[in-house]
Amino acid sequence: MAQDQAPTGGLASIPALLERNAKAFGGKYAYREKEFGIWQSWTWAEAKEEIDALALGLLALGIDRGDHVAIIGRNRPAHYWSMVAAQQCGAVPVPLYQDANAEEMEYVLEHSGARFVICGDQEQVDKVIEAQERVHKIEHVLYVDKRGMRKYDHTHLNWYHDVQEEGRAAHQRVETEMDARIAELTYDSPAVMLYTSGTTGKPKGVVLSNRNVIESAKNSVEFDNLSAGEDVLAYLPMAWVGDFIFSIGQAYWAGFCVNCPESEDTMMTDLREIGPTYFFAPPRVFEGLLTTVMIRMEDAGRIKKRIFDHYMEVARRVGPSILDGKPVSGSDKFRYWLGNLLVYGPLKNTLGFSRVRVGYTAGEAIGPEIFDFYRSLGINLKQLYGQTEATVFITVQPDGEVRPDTVGVPAPGVELRIDDSGEVYYRSPGTFVEYYKNPESTASTKDAEGWVATGDAGFIEEDTGHLRIIDRAKDVGKMADGSMFAPKYVENKLKFYPNILEAVVFGAGREMCTAAINIDLSAVGNWAERNNISYASYQELAGHPEVLNMIQSHVEEVNESVAQDPMLSGCQVHRFLVLHKELDADDGEMTRTRKVKRGVISEKFADLIEALYAGKTEQYTETEVTYEDGRKGSIKATLEIRDAKIWPTAHTQGVAAE
């Protein structure tokens, strides 16, 4: 695939875009951060001065070309500036998940060979200091928040702002060197290294070039007509490729403002205050918001609840058509207008979505019911399909062609093909350079012509050109009777219910599907309080007979829906149990981006899975857990196993592979 030339104007790197923005949008806000309840703002010109000062300080500390700079902390302007400052020094930023445990952090620090680490606060510094007992390449650690740091040994420990001041003082000595290193950057220079979530093994370091980032940003900005006037909320993990492309790539190409919330706890309040025009969230965020809405409506008065239910029915019926500009009767338009006045408008304002012009969800499939709920409110929510190795974008949904059952058409510059086994392949300007220190995995993922295997099974609709993803290729299989098994399809339907936080469906090679379910503690706890059901713990609530009755009704409703799909009707859940603990990344059951590790769960809960298929009505189990302070323990429980109603189907054999 021929390499494209750098964009017009020679903007071949993120630092070059920063230089342009400081001149073109110098007085416009580039960053906001809420701290101590007050929003602070920086213009593009001010942001460039902050970034230059840090880059000069890093040069004074001896940073070399090609060094890896690990960045650990929450979303803050200083951490985004650190990524660009590292690039200005010819180094490569490596953002890490701030909630990574010691073992995960040590692996990335060791594998990347980071010489410099920039931490958000004392907690992250402590984890790095602990890691240094086994990782010996780290030479300098910087920290942004100085609280609690006074009595530490500062031999190789530096306050972020002191490094900036040192850079400002040394600018005459090192500024020429910084300018030279910026000038050396090319379209094919590394821009960032991002580690995969590691669902099937050790995380891999994905090297993305300036070409990957800038071409992907340019194409996607043009696709959705994004401008310098957009506001985004940066709240997702900085180690995730989605945050990098939205908060660095697109922000620097378009020149829009990145807003950082004060904390995870204040995110919803900060979201409402900012009112972003461009918003991204994985399905779990939209699921959580919907759960909150439903809980509040259950607590509302009878009249308010009836008004909500009535106008939401109107919204579900005509809202998406109005959003897409399709014909709707005058009476329905009036009903929707009235619903917007009474319900949709106030609800969007409460959620912080009043100004959203373009919204995206990705990361995993979103339940159709959840997707339709937001679009019915008039929120232009769309799906995109992507991965780290693609610099996010593989497919996108054009306005007017948004559907819950597809992930859209190839993004600008992207080619797609489906191999004989049904696996999706792509190639694009965003295709990653390599897996760091892993040529074997690079070669097995990306062929000589630039085609990349996604690991997902799907097909392209002949009449629309839209891509439909069925599931992970390794997870799609056959039931014992030959019908198709696609667990994610059923799991997403189950998770539409606010009471269900997570679901894992089993059935490959088996005669029937079964499921292990996590309840949502906030939703079910609220329901329990309304129904005078007392409980002392998650485990006790999860095993309560009334809770099991409620979950059973949800499973059976999903089965009725699944039965209508001729391709996947064999995936109805025959038996289920509610787990005695929440699936947790600290216990290795999920990735840091909350993707289920099926292999780990199959092994860890093997006794429960076997009981589901053995026809048992209950099963005793002991499970190891990790507490917040890192200590290990175990919880014991006897779980009830229930049968669910199965609905007759006209066609139960899988046809996807035909």
Quick structural gist:
Helix 2 (44-61) crosses helix 6 (160-169). 39% of the residues lie in helices and 21% in strands.
Element layout with pairings:
Blueprint: H1 14-24, E1 29-35, E2 38-43, H2 44-61, E3 68-72, H3 77-88, E4 92-96, H4 102-112, E5 116-119, H5 122-131, E6 140-143, E7 157-159, H6 160-169, H7 171-184, E8 190-195, E9 205-209, H8 210-223, E10 231-233, H9 241-254, E11 257-260, H10 267-274, E12 278-280, H11 283-299, H12 302-323, H13 330-351, E13 358-361, H14 368-376, E14 381-385, E15 395-396, E16 409-410, E17 415-418, E18 423-427, E19 434-435, H15 439-445, E20 452-460, E21 467-472, E22 477-478, E23 484-485, H16 487-494, E24 500-506, E25 513-519, H17 521-530, H18 538-542, H19 545-562, E26 573-578, H20 598-604, H21 606-613, E27 618-626, E28 632-643
Parallel strand pairs: 1-11, 3-4, 3-5, 5-6, 6-7, 10-11, 12-13, 13-14, 25-26
Antiparallel strand pairs: 1-2, 8-9, 9-19, 14-15, 15-16, 17-18, 18-20, 20-21, 22-23, 24-25, 26-28, 27-28
Main CATH class of the largest domain: Alpha Beta
The description of the largest β-sheet is:
5 strands, parallel
The CATH architecture category of the largest domain equals 3-Layer(aba) Sandwich
As laid out across the biggest beta sheet, the strand order is: 4-3-5-6-7
Number of helices: 21
Percentage of residues assigned to helices: 25-40%
